[in-house]
Amino acid sequence: MLPSLLRPLTAGGPVSPPRPHGKSFIHRSELKQAKRIVVKLGSAVVTRGDECGLALGRLASIVEQVAMLQNQGREMMIVTSGAVAFGKQRLRHEILLSQSVRQALHSGQNQLKDMSVPVLEARACAAAGQSGLMALYEAMFTQYSICTAQILVTNLDFHDEQKRRNLNSTLHELLRMNIVPIINTNDAVVPPPVPSSDLQGVNVISIKDNDSLAARLAVEMKVDLLIALSDVQGLYDRPPGVDDAKLIDIFYPGDQQSITYGTKSRVGIGGMEAKVKAALWALQGGTSVIIANGTDPKVTGHVITDIVEGKKVGTFFSEVKPAGPTVEQQAEMARHAGRSLASLLPEQRTEIICCLAELLTEKKDEILTANKRDMEMATSSGRFSQALINRLSLSSSKLNSLAIGLRQLAVSSRDSVGRVLRKTRVANNLDLEQITVPIGVLLVIFESRPDCLPQVAALAIASGNALLLKGGKEASNTNKILHQLTQEALSVHGVSDAVQLVSTREEVEDLCRLDTMIDLIIPRGSSQLVRDIQRAAKGVPVLGHSEGVCHVYVDSEAAIDKAIDVVRDSKCDYPAACNAMETVLIHRDLLRTPVFDQIIDMLRTEQVKIHAGPRFASYLTFSPSEVKSLRTEYGDLECCMEVVDSLQDAVDHIHRYGSSHTDVIVTENEETAEQFLQQVDSACVFWNCSSRFADGYRFGLGAEVGISTARIHARGPVGLEGLLTTKWVLRGEGHTVADFSEQGSMKYLHENIPLPQGVFS
């Protein structure tokens, strides 16, 4: 009996029922719905670099992915090359062996002359290699309890109606029995390829190579997705080796004229032009197509599963072209306009920010109406926590505070870009300057908090940086109008494209991979979002913090009124904020004292749920619920309470369980306070004041892009200075390094030149 005749339900979960065929998927995210999938393995994917034999490790990885998808309940088919290469290896071995035997018999000696292998005819190689190739697939899939079946086809099998029906029936029966069909052209008898003159209509396509075979099979079997693996990342606008060749993320049927094709791959009889024509033919027939790299060792182990999960891999063929630009085009537009923004006079950038502040006030009613729609949709969906909904909310007072902060920033930022930090006389008439310049293109990804958009936009404008914004869907209406107002302000000086709002269905992970277009990523949201971005970002620095586990340590010499006020404000002013207190540390000597009792009473009055730390719980007969983790960021009216023996104990606790964000001491002992401020290694350390002061606006920065717990570039609330870098400018008069050699006529001076206040390059 054949194994696995019944489709299992695995950890991957059942796949949704087959969708009606006839329309291809519009977005990559829909590929998760694909049930029937063809994976086409090109010759360059299956064969080794020497073209004699198979790339076994690569093939095993591909088989593992196909088996995983099959065991999720999908219907997988493979169109494979490789028979010729496998046969060439076998025949070459046989010929060499035969020659060596004949030579030995002829000469009577063991010494053999140099032997040459004749050119092997491809059809003979295919005939010799087909059985071995199939045996290899059979052995590999058996490891996953999956049965395979071999099918060899030619043009006649599709053009003869009876043969076509027989083929269709056989494939459907194999799929019904949970068997993976392994399909190949019958290269032992197939005629030589001819030009692809018939790849024009939907009804006719000749089987000239495995690209056309996969396309014809996909349409014939009403396949949802065709994955064509090759030896390039996907489709480029020009040959991949050419300078400035760009990988095309999404290809539309009307874009053929914009492509310049190169030569075909080292093996196989197709080429990228043949792949594109076959892909478009399949697309017209209702099958979605992706061309991707199946040879890159960095991605081969997950390329197929990544595609099915909707990740941005290879080139996706789509019939529906979106109305707006792609995110890559937006990044290019932002960079171009950002350079113009950076070249504006400081007064002009100030004018843009002030204009935005005025628009926030003038358009207040429209903003709040849009925000109300978002709030209603978020609440009715039932998918969002109360803390997230609180962050989503805007009010008149919030907008007024935003406008005030922007005006403050406009005044304070005039002397930022182009400021000379140091000046050195390297030698006579050779002066060096270090000046501040924009970083480039910023990508800010934020959840909920739409008030983040004008803050970050103003900081980008002030620092001369281009900006890509990706907000959460839950705030789409609010973000849209705030972005429109931002572009309206930018248009005052003709740089409206410098700030772009990404509204396409782009996955955050895909945005983080735009390493050639993005210079800095700034996440604003949950700790999970920040961690996901830090993992996904490859080659692009990430500015931010993953968690806000902030502490308030109430020392044995704390004043009652200060302790109560600081703890209350730190926890209750805005519990969802990253600078809200999550753990209150109580000195052991305060237990069962008025200070301790009043802190407990205040928290209960404010309806704060207390979770007892292990030491605190040990002191109590009936304690609150014991904390699950001392590293928890609650983001709500909840906190952990723990007992410590000393200042050093409190510092050690913070270093062990904190997130290096903001930590506070409440004490009347100045020496104890100074020790705390010096020893605690956090971005912000406070004495007798609320943790909620850890904010760019409250620090006088005007606005902030977030709070960083990193130890390089920027730390704490990141305002304007954190969005600038430097460059070195050297001015000479024909100086050469040779002038300063032992035989040269010049000597280095390296004299620091004093800078008057407010010097600009």
From TrEMBL:
<keyword id="KW-0028">Amino-acid biosynthesis</keyword>
<dbReference type="InterPro" id="IPR005766">
    <property type="entry name" value="P5_carboxy_syn"/>
</dbReference>
<dbReference type="GO" id="GO:0005524">
    <property type="term" value="F:ATP binding"/>
</dbReference>
<keyword id="KW-0808">Transferase</keyword>
<dbReference type="GO" id="GO:0055129">
    <property type="term" value="P:L-proline biosynthetic process"/>
</dbReference>
<comment type="subunit">
    <text>Can form homodimers/multimers.</text>
</comment>
<dbReference type="InterPro" id="IPR001057">
    <property type="entry name" value="Glu/AcGlu_kinase"/>
</dbReference>
<keyword id="KW-0067">ATP-binding</keyword>
<dbReference type="GO" id="GO:0004349">
    <property type="term" value="F:glutamate 5-kinase activity"/>
</dbReference>
<keyword id="KW-0560">Oxidoreductase</keyword>
<dbReference type="InterPro" id="IPR000965">
    <property type="entry name" value="GPR_dom"/>
</dbReference>
<dbReference type="Pfam" id="PF00171">
    <property type="entry name" value="Aldedh"/>
</dbReference>
<dbReference type="GO" id="GO:0004350">
    <property type="term" value="F:glutamate-5-semialdehyde dehydrogenase activity"/>
</dbReference>
<keyword id="KW-0418">Kinase</keyword>
<dbReference type="InterPro" id="IPR019797">
    <property type="entry name" value="Glutamate_5-kinase_CS"/>
</dbReference>
<dbReference type="InterPro" id="IPR036393">
    <property type="entry name" value="AceGlu_kinase-like_sf"/>
</dbReference>
<dbReference type="InterPro" id="IPR015590">
    <property type="entry name" value="Aldehyde_DH_dom"/>
</dbReference>
<feature type="region of interest" description="Disordered">
    <location>
        <begin position="1"/>
        <end position="24"/>
    </location>
</feature>
<keyword id="KW-0641">Proline biosynthesis</keyword>
<comment type="similarity">
    <text>In the N-terminal section; belongs to the glutamate 5-kinase family.</text>
</comment>
<dbReference type="GO" id="GO:0005759">
    <property type="term" value="C:mitochondrial matrix"/>
</dbReference>
<keyword id="KW-0496">Mitochondrion</keyword>
<dbReference type="InterPro" id="IPR016162">
    <property type="entry name" value="Ald_DH_N"/>
</dbReference>
<comment type="function">
    <text>Bifunctional enzyme that converts glutamate to glutamate 5-semialdehyde, an intermediate in the biosynthesis of proline, ornithine and arginine.</text>
</comment>
<dbReference type="InterPro" id="IPR041744">
    <property type="entry name" value="G5K_ProBA"/>
</dbReference>
<feature type="domain" description="Aldehyde dehydrogenase">
    <location>
        <begin position="326"/>
        <end position="611"/>
    </location>
</feature>
<dbReference type="InterPro" id="IPR020593">
    <property type="entry name" value="G-glutamylP_reductase_CS"/>
</dbReference>
<dbReference type="Pfam" id="PF00696">
    <property type="entry name" value="AA_kinase"/>
</dbReference>
<dbReference type="InterPro" id="IPR016163">
    <property type="entry name" value="Ald_DH_C"/>
</dbReference>
<keyword id="KW-0521">NADP</keyword>
<comment type="pathway">
    <text>Amino-acid biosynthesis; L-proline biosynthesis; L-glutamate 5-semialdehyde from L-glutamate: step 1/2.</text>
</comment>
<comment type="similarity">
    <text>In the C-terminal section; belongs to the gamma-glutamyl phosphate reductase family.</text>
</comment>
<keyword id="KW-0547">Nucleotide-binding</keyword>
<feature type="domain" description="Aspartate/glutamate/uridylate kinase">
    <location>
        <begin position="35"/>
        <end position="293"/>
    </location>
</feature>
<protein>
    <recommendedName>
        <fullName>Delta-1-pyrroline-5-carboxylate synthase</fullName>
        <ecNumber>2.7.2.11</ecNumber>
        <ecNumber>1.2.1.41</ecNumber>
    </recommendedName>
</protein>
<keyword id="KW-0511">Multifunctional enzyme</keyword>
<dbReference type="InterPro" id="IPR005715">
    <property type="entry name" value="Glu_5kinase/COase_Synthase"/>
</dbReference>
<dbReference type="InterPro" id="IPR001048">
    <property type="entry name" value="Asp/Glu/Uridylate_kinase"/>
</dbReference>
<comment type="pathway">
    <text>Amino-acid biosynthesis; L-proline biosynthesis; L-glutamate 5-semialdehyde from L-glutamate: step 2/2.</text>
</comment>
<dbReference type="InterPro" id="IPR016161">
    <property type="entry name" value="Ald_DH/histidinol_DH"/>
</dbReference>
